[in-house]
Protein backbone atom coordinates (compact mmCIF):
# COMPACT_ATOMS: atom_id res chain seq x y z
CA UNK A 1 0.00 0.00 0.00
CA UNK A 2 1.26 3.44 -0.80
CA UNK A 3 0.25 6.91 0.26
CA UNK A 4 -2.05 6.98 -2.75
CA UNK A 5 -4.09 4.15 -1.28
CA UNK A 6 -5.07 6.48 1.50
CA UNK A 7 -5.77 9.52 -0.67
CA UNK A 8 -8.73 11.40 0.62
CA UNK A 9 -11.10 13.55 -1.04
CA UNK A 10 -14.32 14.89 -1.89
CA UNK A 11 -15.95 12.22 -3.93
CA UNK A 12 -14.75 9.65 -1.45
CA UNK A 13 -17.10 6.68 -1.64
CA UNK A 14 -19.46 6.57 1.31
CA UNK A 15 -18.47 4.22 4.06
CA UNK A 16 -21.07 1.44 3.75
CA UNK A 17 -23.40 0.62 6.62
CA UNK A 18 -22.41 -2.60 8.37
CA UNK A 19 -24.13 -3.55 11.64
CA UNK A 20 -23.18 -6.93 13.14
CA UNK A 21 -26.04 -9.08 14.52
CA UNK A 22 -24.69 -9.18 18.04
CA UNK A 23 -24.42 -5.39 18.15
CA UNK A 24 -27.96 -4.97 16.76
CA UNK A 25 -29.14 -7.19 19.62
CA UNK A 26 -27.31 -5.01 22.15
CA UNK A 27 -29.02 -1.95 20.69
CA UNK A 28 -32.43 -3.62 21.05
CA UNK A 29 -31.73 -4.63 24.62
CA UNK A 30 -30.26 -1.31 25.82
CA UNK A 31 -32.23 1.35 27.68
CA UNK A 32 -33.03 4.66 25.95
CA UNK A 33 -29.69 6.45 26.46
CA UNK A 34 -27.66 3.29 25.83
CA UNK A 35 -29.58 2.59 22.64
CA UNK A 36 -28.80 6.05 21.28
CA UNK A 37 -25.12 5.79 22.23
CA UNK A 38 -24.72 2.43 20.54
CA UNK A 39 -26.73 3.28 17.43
CA UNK A 40 -24.79 6.52 16.96
CA UNK A 41 -21.55 4.53 16.63
CA UNK A 42 -22.81 2.32 13.81
CA UNK A 43 -25.69 4.02 11.93
CA UNK A 44 -24.64 6.36 9.09
CA UNK A 45 -25.65 10.00 9.46
CA UNK A 46 -25.66 12.99 7.08
CA UNK A 47 -22.99 14.60 9.31
CA UNK A 48 -20.47 12.24 7.68
CA UNK A 49 -20.69 14.22 4.45
CA UNK A 50 -19.31 17.32 6.14
CA UNK A 51 -15.53 17.44 5.80
CA UNK A 52 -13.32 19.59 8.02
CA UNK A 53 -10.11 21.17 6.72
CA UNK A 54 -7.74 19.30 9.01
CA UNK A 55 -9.21 15.87 8.21
CA UNK A 56 -7.27 13.40 6.04
CA UNK A 57 -7.68 9.84 4.84
CA UNK A 58 -4.51 8.74 6.71
CA UNK A 59 -4.81 10.75 9.94
CA UNK A 60 -2.08 8.75 11.71
CA UNK A 61 0.41 9.10 8.84
CA UNK A 62 0.90 5.33 8.84
CA UNK A 63 1.86 5.37 5.15
CA UNK A 64 5.24 6.84 6.19
CA UNK A 65 6.21 3.83 8.26
CA UNK A 66 5.37 0.87 6.04
CA UNK A 67 8.20 -1.65 5.88
CA UNK A 68 6.28 -4.31 3.93
CA UNK A 69 2.98 -3.67 2.11
CA UNK A 70 0.95 -4.23 5.29
CA UNK A 71 3.40 -3.80 8.18
CA UNK A 72 3.82 -0.46 10.00
CA UNK A 73 7.07 -0.05 11.98
CA UNK A 74 6.86 3.29 13.78
CA UNK A 75 8.20 2.57 17.28
CA UNK A 76 11.54 0.79 17.83
CA UNK A 77 10.28 -2.30 19.62
CA UNK A 78 6.82 -2.95 18.17
CA UNK A 79 5.10 -3.24 14.80
CA UNK A 80 1.51 -3.12 13.56
CA UNK A 81 0.24 -5.62 10.97
CA UNK A 82 -2.81 -4.69 8.90
CA UNK A 83 -3.87 -8.28 8.27
CA UNK A 84 -7.18 -7.58 6.54
CA UNK A 85 -9.24 -4.64 5.32
CA UNK A 86 -12.51 -6.17 6.46
CA UNK A 87 -14.34 -5.34 9.67
CA UNK A 88 -17.13 -7.05 11.58
CA UNK A 89 -19.02 -3.75 11.67
CA UNK A 90 -18.34 -0.24 10.41
CA UNK A 91 -17.78 2.21 13.27
CA UNK A 92 -18.75 5.57 11.78
CA UNK A 93 -15.78 7.38 13.43
CA UNK A 94 -13.23 4.87 12.08
CA UNK A 95 -9.80 6.39 11.39
CA UNK A 96 -9.12 3.83 8.66
CA UNK A 97 -12.47 4.34 6.94
CA UNK A 98 -10.79 5.48 3.72
CA UNK A 99 -8.22 2.69 3.68
CA UNK A 100 -8.79 1.54 0.10
CA UNK A 101 -7.76 -1.97 1.01
CA UNK A 102 -10.90 -1.96 3.16
CA UNK A 103 -12.69 -4.66 1.20
CA UNK A 104 -9.51 -6.71 0.88
CA UNK A 105 -9.56 -10.11 2.55
CA UNK A 106 -6.83 -11.68 4.68
CA UNK A 107 -3.12 -11.31 3.84
CA UNK A 108 -1.89 -13.42 0.93
CA UNK A 109 0.86 -16.00 1.50
CA UNK A 110 3.42 -13.64 -0.06
CA UNK A 111 2.35 -10.74 2.18
CA UNK A 112 2.54 -13.00 5.24
CA UNK A 113 5.99 -14.21 4.20
CA UNK A 114 7.21 -10.61 3.88
CA UNK A 115 6.09 -9.90 7.45
CA UNK A 116 7.59 -13.10 8.79
CA UNK A 117 10.91 -12.40 7.03
CA UNK A 118 11.00 -8.86 8.45
CA UNK A 119 10.45 -10.18 11.98
CA UNK A 120 13.07 -12.89 11.54
CA UNK A 121 15.60 -10.21 10.55
CA UNK A 122 14.58 -7.54 13.08
CA UNK A 123 15.14 -8.86 16.61
CA UNK A 124 14.65 -5.34 18.03
CA UNK A 125 10.93 -5.86 17.42
CA UNK A 126 9.52 -7.50 20.55
CA UNK A 127 5.77 -7.07 19.97
CA UNK A 128 3.37 -7.28 17.04
CA UNK A 129 -0.11 -5.74 16.99
CA UNK A 130 -2.31 -7.87 14.74
CA UNK A 131 -4.96 -5.45 13.51
CA UNK A 132 -6.64 -4.35 10.30
CA UNK A 133 -9.62 -4.14 9.66
CA UNK A 134 -10.52 -6.76 12.21
CA UNK A 135 -8.47 -9.98 12.33
CA UNK A 136 -11.62 -11.77 13.55
CA UNK A 137 -13.18 -11.43 10.07
CA UNK A 138 -10.67 -14.00 8.79
CA UNK A 139 -11.58 -17.68 8.63
CA UNK A 140 -10.07 -19.12 11.84
CA UNK A 141 -7.78 -21.47 9.92
CA UNK A 142 -6.27 -18.54 7.98
CA UNK A 143 -5.81 -16.44 11.11
CA UNK A 144 -4.23 -19.29 13.07
CA UNK A 145 -1.96 -20.28 10.17
CA UNK A 146 -0.55 -16.72 10.23
CA UNK A 147 -0.29 -16.50 14.03
CA UNK A 148 1.40 -19.91 14.14
CA UNK A 149 3.94 -18.75 11.51
CA UNK A 150 4.73 -15.74 13.70
CA UNK A 151 5.17 -17.97 16.70
CA UNK A 152 7.36 -20.42 14.76
CA UNK A 153 9.78 -17.73 13.59
CA UNK A 154 9.85 -15.83 16.91
CA UNK A 155 8.99 -17.78 20.04
CA UNK A 156 9.67 -14.64 22.11
CA UNK A 157 7.37 -12.27 20.20
CA UNK A 158 4.48 -10.78 22.17
CA UNK A 159 1.33 -10.93 20.03
CA UNK A 160 -1.45 -8.36 20.61
CA UNK A 161 -4.69 -9.27 18.85
CA UNK A 162 -6.57 -5.98 18.33
CA UNK A 163 -10.26 -6.56 17.69
CA UNK A 164 -13.81 -5.41 18.23
CA UNK A 165 -14.79 -9.12 18.16
CA UNK A 166 -15.72 -9.54 21.84
CA UNK A 167 -18.38 -6.81 21.36
CA UNK A 168 -19.37 -7.24 17.70
CA UNK A 169 -19.13 -11.03 17.37
CA UNK A 170 -18.65 -12.81 20.69
CA UNK A 171 -20.02 -15.98 19.05
CA UNK A 172 -16.76 -16.30 17.11
CA UNK A 173 -14.89 -17.05 20.35
CA UNK A 174 -15.88 -20.70 20.50
CA UNK A 175 -14.17 -22.95 23.05
CA UNK A 176 -11.98 -24.31 20.25
CA UNK A 177 -11.03 -20.82 19.04
CA UNK A 178 -10.14 -19.68 22.57
CA UNK A 179 -8.14 -22.86 23.15
CA UNK A 180 -6.11 -22.30 19.97
CA UNK A 181 -5.46 -18.67 20.94
CA UNK A 182 -4.31 -19.67 24.41
CA UNK A 183 -1.74 -22.02 22.85
CA UNK A 184 -0.01 -19.01 21.22
CA UNK A 185 1.13 -17.27 24.39
CA UNK A 186 2.59 -14.78 25.03
CA UNK A 187 -0.58 -13.25 23.54
CA UNK A 188 -2.92 -10.52 24.72
CA UNK A 189 -6.36 -9.71 23.34
CA UNK A 190 -6.99 -5.96 22.97
CA UNK A 191 -10.76 -5.46 22.74
CA UNK A 192 -12.21 -2.13 21.56
CA UNK A 193 -15.11 -1.21 23.89
CA UNK A 194 -16.73 2.22 24.22
CA UNK A 195 -19.84 2.01 26.38
CA UNK A 196 -21.13 -0.04 29.35
CA UNK A 197 -24.15 -1.14 27.25
CA UNK A 198 -21.67 -2.97 24.97
CA UNK A 199 -21.15 -5.46 27.80
CA UNK A 200 -24.19 -7.71 27.31
CA UNK A 201 -24.40 -11.30 28.54
CA UNK A 202 -22.71 -12.80 25.45
CA UNK A 203 -19.94 -10.19 25.55
CA UNK A 204 -19.26 -10.82 29.24
CA UNK A 205 -19.17 -14.57 28.62
CA UNK A 206 -16.66 -14.07 25.81
CA UNK A 207 -14.33 -11.92 27.94
CA UNK A 208 -14.65 -14.38 30.83
CA UNK A 209 -13.85 -17.34 28.55
CA UNK A 210 -10.67 -15.60 27.38
CA UNK A 211 -9.67 -14.78 30.93
CA UNK A 212 -10.40 -18.31 32.14
CA UNK A 213 -8.20 -19.67 29.36
CA UNK A 214 -5.37 -17.50 30.73
CA UNK A 215 -5.45 -14.84 28.00
CA UNK A 216 -4.84 -11.35 29.43
CA UNK A 217 -6.81 -8.43 28.01
CA UNK A 218 -6.31 -4.68 27.81
CA UNK A 219 -9.15 -2.60 26.40
CA UNK A 220 -9.10 0.50 24.24
CA UNK A 221 -11.84 3.11 24.10
CA UNK A 222 -12.37 6.09 21.81
CA UNK A 223 -13.70 9.27 23.41
CA UNK A 224 -16.81 10.08 21.35
CA UNK A 225 -19.25 12.98 21.49
CA UNK A 226 -22.79 11.78 22.15
CA UNK A 227 -21.56 8.28 22.97
CA UNK A 228 -19.35 8.30 26.06
CA UNK A 229 -18.28 11.93 26.68
CA UNK A 230 -19.19 11.81 30.36
CA UNK A 231 -16.84 11.06 33.27
CA UNK A 232 -19.58 9.15 35.14
CA UNK A 233 -20.31 6.89 32.18
CA UNK A 234 -16.62 6.22 31.46
CA UNK A 235 -15.95 5.54 35.15
CA UNK A 236 -18.73 2.95 35.05
CA UNK A 237 -17.26 1.36 31.89
CA UNK A 238 -13.70 1.14 33.24
CA UNK A 239 -14.83 -0.21 36.60
CA UNK A 240 -16.96 -2.88 34.89
CA UNK A 241 -14.03 -3.86 32.68
CA UNK A 242 -11.72 -4.30 35.64
CA UNK A 243 -14.37 -6.43 37.37
CA UNK A 244 -14.33 -8.67 34.28
CA UNK A 245 -10.53 -8.90 34.40
CA UNK A 246 -9.78 -6.42 31.60
CA UNK A 247 -7.24 -3.64 32.22
CA UNK A 248 -8.39 -0.36 30.65
CA UNK A 249 -5.43 0.61 28.46
CA UNK A 250 -6.15 3.67 26.38
CA UNK A 251 -8.84 6.29 26.12
CA UNK A 252 -8.12 7.71 22.66
CA UNK A 253 -8.79 11.14 21.32
CA UNK A 254 -10.89 10.64 18.15
CA UNK A 255 -8.68 10.91 15.05
CA UNK A 256 -9.07 13.38 12.19
CA UNK A 257 -10.65 11.00 9.67
CA UNK A 258 -12.90 12.50 6.97
CA UNK A 259 -16.43 13.33 8.12
CA UNK A 260 -15.90 12.54 11.82
CA UNK A 261 -16.08 16.06 13.31
CA UNK A 262 -19.41 15.40 15.02
CA UNK A 263 -17.73 12.66 17.08
CA UNK A 264 -14.72 14.66 18.23
CA UNK A 265 -14.50 16.04 21.77
CA UNK A 266 -11.93 18.89 21.85
CA UNK A 267 -8.76 17.79 23.68
CA UNK A 268 -9.06 20.42 26.44
CA UNK A 269 -12.52 19.11 27.27
CA UNK A 270 -11.11 15.57 27.03
CA UNK A 271 -8.40 16.46 29.54
CA UNK A 272 -11.05 17.76 31.96
CA UNK A 273 -12.97 14.50 31.57
CA UNK A 274 -9.77 12.56 32.22
CA UNK A 275 -8.96 14.63 35.34
CA UNK A 276 -12.43 13.88 36.70
CA UNK A 277 -11.84 10.19 35.94
CA UNK A 278 -8.56 10.31 37.82
CA UNK A 279 -10.42 11.54 40.90
CA UNK A 280 -13.15 8.92 40.55
CA UNK A 281 -11.11 5.80 39.73
CA UNK A 282 -8.28 3.70 41.13
CA UNK A 283 -4.98 3.51 39.28
CA UNK A 284 -5.96 0.03 38.14
CA UNK A 285 -9.16 1.26 36.50
CA UNK A 286 -7.74 4.43 34.93
CA UNK A 287 -6.57 4.23 31.29
CA UNK A 288 -4.11 6.63 29.69
CA UNK A 289 -5.73 9.41 27.68
CA UNK A 290 -3.76 9.75 24.44
CA UNK A 291 -3.86 11.23 20.98
CA UNK A 292 -2.23 9.83 17.86
CA UNK A 293 -0.51 12.95 16.60
CA UNK A 294 -1.74 13.74 13.07
CA UNK A 295 0.70 13.00 10.28
CA UNK A 296 2.77 10.32 12.01
CA UNK A 297 3.88 11.95 15.28
CA UNK A 298 2.92 8.87 17.25
CA UNK A 299 0.91 8.43 20.42
CA UNK A 300 1.15 11.25 22.92
CA UNK A 301 -0.35 11.03 26.40
CA UNK A 302 -2.71 13.97 26.95
CA UNK A 303 -2.79 13.07 30.61
CA UNK A 304 0.73 14.53 30.91
CA UNK A 305 0.04 18.22 30.19
CA UNK A 306 -3.00 18.03 32.43
CA UNK A 307 -0.86 16.73 35.27
CA UNK A 308 2.01 19.09 34.61
CA UNK A 309 -0.32 22.00 35.37
CA UNK A 310 0.31 21.02 38.92
CA UNK A 311 4.09 20.68 38.66
CA UNK A 312 5.09 24.11 39.89
CA UNK A 313 8.05 26.18 38.68
CA UNK A 314 11.25 25.30 40.45
CA UNK A 315 13.18 28.16 42.05
CA UNK A 316 16.68 27.40 43.37
CA UNK A 317 15.35 24.26 44.88
CA UNK A 318 16.46 20.72 44.17
CA UNK A 319 13.02 19.19 44.40
CA UNK A 320 10.02 18.79 42.18
CA UNK A 321 7.20 20.87 43.59
CA UNK A 322 3.85 19.31 42.90
CA UNK A 323 0.42 20.43 43.97
CA UNK A 324 -1.42 17.54 45.65
CA UNK A 325 -5.12 16.72 45.42
CA UNK A 326 -5.67 18.87 48.52
CA UNK A 327 -4.10 21.94 46.85
CA UNK A 328 -1.02 21.89 49.10
CA UNK A 329 2.46 21.85 47.59
CA UNK A 330 4.48 18.65 48.01
CA UNK A 331 8.17 18.12 47.26
CA UNK A 332 10.04 15.18 45.81
CA UNK A 333 13.84 15.48 45.67
CA UNK A 334 15.49 15.64 42.27
CA UNK A 335 18.81 14.18 43.45
CA UNK A 336 19.87 11.45 45.85
CA UNK A 337 21.87 13.56 48.30
C1 LIG B 1 -0.52 2.23 18.73
C2 LIG B 1 0.55 1.69 17.91
C3 LIG B 1 1.47 0.79 18.45
C4 LIG B 1 1.41 0.34 19.90
O1 LIG B 1 1.66 1.37 20.80
P1 LIG B 1 1.37 1.14 22.37
O2 LIG B 1 1.59 2.46 23.00
O3 LIG B 1 2.31 0.08 22.80
O4 LIG B 1 -0.05 0.67 22.47
C5 LIG B 1 2.47 0.31 17.63
N1 LIG B 1 2.58 0.71 16.35
C6 LIG B 1 1.72 1.59 15.80
C7 LIG B 1 1.92 2.00 14.39
C8 LIG B 1 0.68 2.10 16.56
O5 LIG B 1 -0.19 2.98 16.01
Task: Provide the fold topology.
Elements: H1 21-29, H2 32-42, E1 66-68, E2 71-75, E3 78-82, H3 109-121, E4 127-131, H4 140-153, E5 158-163, H5 165-168, H6 175-182, E6 187-191, H7 201-212, E7 217-222, H8 231-243, E8 246-252, H9 267-280, E9 288-293, E10 298-301, H10 303-308, E11 311-312, E12 319-323, E13 329-333
Parallel strand pairs: 3-4, 4-5, 5-6, 7-8, 8-9
Antiparallel strand pairs: 1-2, 2-3, 9-10, 11-12, 12-13
Helix pairs in contact: 1-2, 3-4, 8-9
Bound molecules: pyridoxal-5'-phosphate (PLP).
Summarize the structure.
By secondary structure, the chain is of the alpha/beta class. 31% of the residues lie in helices and 19% in strands. The site of pyridoxal-5'-phosphate has 7 residues, from β2 and β3.
Amount of beta strand: 15-25%
**Spatial order of the strands forming the largest sheet:** 1-2-3-4-5-6
Shape: globular
How confident is the prediction overall: mean pLDDT? 91
Q: Which molecules other than protein and nucleic acid are bound?
A: pyridoxal-5'-phosphate
Q: How many β-strands, per DSSP?
A: 13
Amino acid sequence: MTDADWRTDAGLPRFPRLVPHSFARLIDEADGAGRLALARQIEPSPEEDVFALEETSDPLGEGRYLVTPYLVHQYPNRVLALVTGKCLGHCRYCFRKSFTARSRGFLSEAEQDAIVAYLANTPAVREILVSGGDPLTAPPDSLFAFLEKLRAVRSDLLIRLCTRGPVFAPEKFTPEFVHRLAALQPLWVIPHINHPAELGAAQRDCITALRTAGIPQQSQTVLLRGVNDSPELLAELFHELVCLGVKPGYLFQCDLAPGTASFRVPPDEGMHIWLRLRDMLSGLSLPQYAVDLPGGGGKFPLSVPALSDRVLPNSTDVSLRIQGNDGKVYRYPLTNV
